[in-house]
Task: inverse folding
């Protein structure tokens, strides 16, 4: 039975990238995730039927709060294990992996991403990496090359959502939930792209969802955008990303503007000369600049 049909039958259900441990919900394995159905809305017969539809995708490897402190922070409302710095969440979807392959892939990812502070699989085909900010953090294109190599080594097929870096004082549980919904939406509607990020998600997702209600977008505006950047982004938008034309519009030397754009890219991994990234910043300003 297709996900859309089940959601029509059970309108209080919701899609997630991972199964739930909450005993009040039933997790049903679907393509690109799990449908969570409240058990209180189900009869005994319906529970049996849905469990028959479900093919278990949950890993046998237990997740230890001690070994994976970010798991407790993201899913058990525990304080963050770090009280300073900025972090991003990288979500990984793959075909279901054997336990031995899963362990080996997890070890390899930990090795090649030296700034990862936690990494765990929530199911046989879904993992989360928590990475601390560094000046040499990989952008989406670099992550794509890295995971293409991993796929070749492990005979796997992975797709990723690379979230933005957020300050430690944000609510990472809420951030994960929103970034997870972006990822699930893109997996369903874009079958070609291997690595997504917030910039590539903004146009397709927020064409249908209210950006003003997004905690994620509000957080990005507050962390990224100051009064000077507002003027720069508006000028770049007006000039379709052309640095020279925007510099003239701002009465600013081209090299000065280029330096500021490069500095913003170093801090956020967003390239304001790319229209997707520029649109995201323009959207933030139009929505939250009161």
Result:
């Amino acid at each position: 039975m297709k996900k859309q049909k089940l959601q029509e039958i059970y309108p209080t259900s919701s899609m997630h990238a991972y199964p739930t441990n909450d005993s009040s919900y039933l997790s049903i394995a679907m393509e690109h995730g799990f449908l969570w159905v409240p058990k209180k809305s189900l009869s005994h017969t319906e529970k049996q039927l849905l469990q028959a539809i479900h093919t278990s995708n949950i890993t046998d490897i237990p997740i230890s709060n001690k070994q994976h402190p970010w798991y407790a922070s993201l899913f058990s409302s525990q304080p963050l294990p770090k009280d300073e710095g900025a972090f991003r969440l990288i979500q990984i979807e793959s075909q279901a992996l054997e336990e031995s392959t899963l362990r080996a892939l997890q070890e390899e990812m930990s090795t090649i991403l030296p700034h990862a502070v936690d990494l765990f699989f929530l199911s046989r085909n879904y993992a989360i990496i928590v990475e601390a900010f560094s000046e040499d953090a990989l952008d989406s294109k670099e992550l794509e090359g890295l995971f293409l190599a991993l796929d070749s080594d492990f005979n796997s097929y992975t797709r990723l959502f690379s979230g933005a870096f957020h300050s430690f004082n944000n609510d990472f549980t809420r951030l994960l939930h929103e970034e997870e919904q972006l990822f699930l939406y893109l997996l369903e509607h874009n079958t070609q792209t291997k690595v997504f990020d917030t910039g590539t998600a903004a146009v397709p997702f927020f064409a249908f969802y209210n950006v003003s209600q997004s905690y994620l977008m509000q957080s990005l505006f507050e962390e990224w955008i100051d009064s000077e950047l507002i003027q720069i982004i508006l000028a770049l938008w007006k000039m379709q990303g052309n640095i020279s034309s925007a510099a003239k519009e701002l009465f600013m030397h081209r090299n000065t503007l280029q330096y500021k754009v490069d500095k913003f890219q170093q801090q956020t991994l967003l390239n304001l000369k790319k229209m997707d990234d520029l649109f995201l910043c323009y959207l933030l300003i139009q929505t939250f600049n009161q």
